[in-house]
Design goal:
Layout: E1 2-6, E2 16-19, E3 29-39, H1 41-48, E4 57-58, E5 63-70, E6 82-85, E7 96-100, E8 104-106, H2 113-133, E9 141-144, H3 150-161, E10 165-170, H4 177-181, E11 186-189, H5 195-202, E12 208-213, H6 220-224, E13 227-235, H7 248-253, E14 258-260, H8 264-267, H9 271-286, E15 296-299, H10 303-311, E16 319-322
Parallel strand pairs: 9-10, 9-12, 10-11, 12-13, 13-14, 15-16
Antiparallel strand pairs: 1-2, 1-4, 3-5, 3-7, 3-16, 5-6, 6-8
Bound molecules: NADP nicotinamide-adenine-dinucleotide phosphate.
NADP nicotinamide-adenine-dinucleotide phosphate (NAP) binds next to α1, α2, α3 and α10.
């Protein structure tokens, strides 16, 4: 079967298409024949070496497809089941992948494979951010970065569904219509506007209850300066680089702020947590509260192009690879 491998860290050119033997599932494992594979910004961190992985390595941890082999002792699934997953061992960029059955979710008939691959990891991320890290309540003022992107589109809609006032941030004027279309109350174009000043203006000087910042290095200061007294800074990504180190005193000076640097893994540690998170996501998708835009499709063999486009800020919504 075809798969993507990296033998060294570097730019998109280190993604190599290789032919490897189709893996067989061991005890409690299933093999999923992929219909669509999710591309996530974290895949670029693992490719560059920002997040360390043992090399050589496969890439990708999210896909949707059909179970075509099961190992001994598997109880959750049988051959032929539709499934999706977002936390496999690296190697989802492939025609088929093996993972422990407890990391896979039964995929409702109503959700197409490409929509699942576009939304499992990003949607479960939006869910833990909005419902667990800082539980958003009706009337909260919420700032969401990269609101035209994969996580951002879902988070914008979900925050509106929870009754928040959403201030969406996008990187250029061509992206402003996207969060507006998903219900955002305000959109800030960070290429032209001062983020903190605009948030203060919108909130009559008060600031936001919570900022969900996935950009990191370039926006750390603006995010901290956008918060109200006792607001919460949630730094959950590094698309521009890692946020700088800071003194705890800063949180006191800026208004007794809270700070979290969460990751999906720690919010879906147990099968129960994973199932609950996925159920919640499928529920908002099935009732139409969160709409998943048709993802941009690339052939599996064009994974390098998908990475280039994602890192150059050329994409909106989600990207999937089609084996
Ligand atoms: N903590 C977690 O568990 C977790 C889980 C999933 C995702 N994430 C994070 O969430 C973020 C979004 O992930 P995604 O897969 O949905 O990607 P995405 O938001 O679709 O794409 C990344 C976006 O980041 C923005 N960006 C700002 N500065 C950038 C820069 N210097 N270089 C490249 N992009 C820049 C761009 O949007 P604009 O042009 O509009 O600024 C770009 O479109 C990533 O930072 C990712 O690491 C974290």
């Amino acid at each position: 079967m075809k798969a993507i491998r990296i033998e060294s860290n570097g730019g998109p050119e280190v993604l190599r298409v290789v032919d490897i033997e189709t893996p067989a599932p061991g005890p409690h494992e299933i093999r999923v024949r992929h219909h669509a594979v999710g591309v996530n910004f974290i895949d670029t961190y693992q490719r560059t070496g920002l997040y360390k992985v043992a090399l050589p390595s496969g890439l990708g941890s999210e896909a949707a497809g059909i179970v075509d082999a099961v190992g001994d002792g598997v109880t959750r699934f049988k051959i032929g089941d539709r499934v999706a997953y977002a936390s496999s061992p690296l190697g989802a960029y492939s025609e088929a992948h093996v993972l422990n059955e407890t990391r896979a979710l039964a995929l409702p008939e109503s959700i197409a494979f490409d929509i699942a691959a576009a939304s499992m990891l990003k949607g479960m991320t939006a869910r833990f951010l909005l419902r667990k890290t800082f539980p958003v309540q009706h009337g909260h003022v919420v700032v969401i970065y990269s609101a035209a992107g994969g996580v951002g589109q879902i988070a914008t809609q979900w925050a509106k569904h929870l009754g928040a006032v959403v201030i969406a941030i996008v990187g250029n004027a061509s992206k402003t219509a996207i969060p507006m279309g998903f219900g955002a109350d305000h959109v800030i174009d960070s290429s032209r506007e001062n983020i903190a000043a605009r948030v203060r203006e919108i909130t009559n000087g008060e600031g936001a209850d919570v900022v969900y910042d996935s950009v990191g290095k370039d926006t750390f200061e603006a995010s901290i300066d956008s918060l109200k007294v006792r607001g919460m800074m949630v730094s959950f990504g590094n698309s521009s680089g890692v946020a700088p180190p800071f003194s705890p005193l800063l949180l006191s000076q800026k208004g007794s702020l809270f700070f979290s640097r969460p990751t999906l893994t720690h919010y879906t540690r147990t099968t129960e947590e994973l199932d609950e998170t996925a159920r919640d996501l499928f529920d908002v998708i099935e009732k139409g509260a969160v709409k998943i835009a048709p993802p941009t499709r690339y052939a599996l063999t064009d994974a390098a192009q998908a990475h280039s486009d994602l890192e150059a800020r050329r994409t909106t919504g989600s990207l999937v690879l089609i084996p």
